[in-house]
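Student:
Attend to each token:
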Amino acid sequence: MLKEMHKKEIFFNKERFYNMIIFKTTAYFNPHLDDLCFFEEKEGITKKLVSALEPSNKQSGPVDLFCLSWAICFYKTSKKILAEQDYTNKDLKVKVTLEMQKDDKGFYFKPTAILGIQDMTLEQTEIIADATHKRCPISRLISADENVSVKVSNYNELITE
């Protein structure tokens, strides 16, 4: 009986570890910043990428560049879809987060794109986000992964600075 209880405790602790976030990276794309993008990690380190070829002293890595790529692609695809619907004067914000997690198979990424559109309801924004996720080349590349998600937020509540 004692051995069985001990095994259950180990399994419980193992499960807790598997659902733990190992690290989290956030990329913000804001065209008003002249393509300067900011990365924020779980440890509270903020990095600024001026050039993909010459990263800042704190060195951005592939995860940062993936987040940045998806954020820019999602932003531009959303703008294109809005323009097709004659919403050319709408400002929007895109935030991409990526968490590294672990399960019984090993490590995996959990990327999330969040879209906020100025003066649009969450329902309207969700329609644009769904259409964007179907057309954005990077979204199409990763959409089969069950860990990929797209969410919406109120424009004024989506912090991208």
Summary: The CA atoms of residues 97 and 147 lie 12 Å apart. The longest strand covers residues 92-103. The longest helix spans residues 62-84.
